[in-house]
Write a structure and sequence with these properties.
Helix content: 40-55%
Strand content: 15-25%
Oligomer: single chain
Shape: globular
Distance between the termini: 85 Å
Structural class: alpha/beta
Strand order of the largest sheet: 2-1-3-10-4-11
Number of helices: 11
CATH superfamily of the largest domain: Bordetella uptake gene, domain 1
Order of helices and strands: HEHEHEHEEHEHEHEHEEHHEH
Length: 330
């Protein structure tokens, strides 16, 4: 039996096949990001500054992108556990690290323990906030200016105590960097956290501390400790009367702490751009500014290549300092 295909039938067949191929192609296209909840890993316990900033960002991002941003607290090992979890996660944008400055200190302190590269294992998205380091002294130390502090330290090397939240902490690095820049010798006193440092400053058992502004802002305002200088390129809007180190005769010393978002290396550029927009908008928002001011922080969005360069620069600086001081936190 002979079968005859008409031109009309052939056209219909082709049209049907094209429709099937188009549908298959459309189905294969990746869904718009995000299409499911995003996990934001934080290397500190709930309630600390990094966690509070992360939650504020997560709330904003959830509303901006229409999917929940869920906080996953993984404290321990100076944030190594959190960073490792993100470095080994799929590079699909659904597992992100909300980190801080200490991320760039890890290579110098844990050279034999870390299974990731602080630079190459991540794609930096943006910072969302910064916290200036401020030099504060207890009321028991009779100095009112940075010049007086430095003069007293030079005349009494190793006598003035400088408390930090622990060996290898951001405050420890800030202390050693300042001492080196100024040719000073301070007596480093490591504590287990920032709270006891502030307590001993107020009680007169400790002379000084290079502290994040948020940890001592209320005590400064209450007159319980004295702020001598802010380690930033410009004065803080929260303490406009306190000079920068440069203004007070401390040279170009700067020690801002940052809080920001990083993704696993290899994350698609489209996803990175989407997250950059949200982080930048968050830093510009009134809600973020109000929340951050209460923590002694300034909103700041440093993104992409500029953020990457900053991380690379800090890793180099802190690794060299750790080696020079023979700092190990294994």
């Amino acid at each position: 039996m002979k079968t005859t295909f008409t031109r009309s039938f052939f056209s219909t067949l082709c049209l049907g096949a094209s429709s099937v191929l188009w549908a298959a192609s459309a189905t294969a296209q990746p869904a718009a990001f995000p299409s499911k909840p995003v996990k934001l890993v934080v290397g500190f316990a709930a309630g600390g500054p990094t966690d509070v900033v992360a939650r504020a960002f997560a709330d904003y991002a959830s509303r901006a992108l229409g999917q929940p941003f869920i906080i996953d607290n993984k404290p321990g090992a100076n944030t190594i556990l959190a960073a490792q979890a993100v470095a080994s996660a799929p590079a699909d944008g659904y597992t992100l690290l909300f980190g801080a400055t200490n991320h760039t200190m890890i290579p110098g302190l844990y050279s034999n323990r870390v299974k990731f590269d602080a630079v190459r294992s991540f794609t930096p998205i943006c910072t969302v906030a910064t916290s200036p380091t401020v030099l504060v002294v207890g009321l028991g130390l009779p100095v009112k200016t940075l010049a007086e502090f430095m003069d007293r330290a030079r005349k009494n090397p190793g006598v003035i105590t400088a408390g930090t939240a622990g060996v290898g902490s951001s405050g420890h690095f800030a202390t050693e960097m300042f001492a080196r820049n100024g040719g000073l010798t301070l007596n480093h006193v490591p504590y287990k956290g920032a709270a006891p440092v502030v307590t001993d400053l107020m009680g007169g058992q400790l002379d000084s501390s290079f502290a994040t502004l948020g940890s001592v802002l209320q005590q400064i305002k209450a007159g319980k400790v004295t702020a001598l200088a802010v380690a930033s390129s410009k004065r803080s809007a929260l303490l406009p009367q306190i000079p920068t180190f440069a203004e007070a005769g401390g040279g170009s010393y700067s020690a801002d702490a940052w809080y920001g978002v990083l993704a696993p290396a290899g994350t698609a550029r489209a996803i990175v751009q989407s997250l950059e927009r949200v982080a930048s908008d968050f830093a510009k928002s009134d809600a973020a500014a109000e929340k951050l001011r209460g923590l002694g922080l300034d909103a700041d969005a440093t993104c992409g290549g500029v953020f990457l360069s900053q991380i690379e620069r800090e890793v180099t600086t802190y690794t060299k300092l750790a080696r020079d001081l023979d700092l190990k936190a294994e």
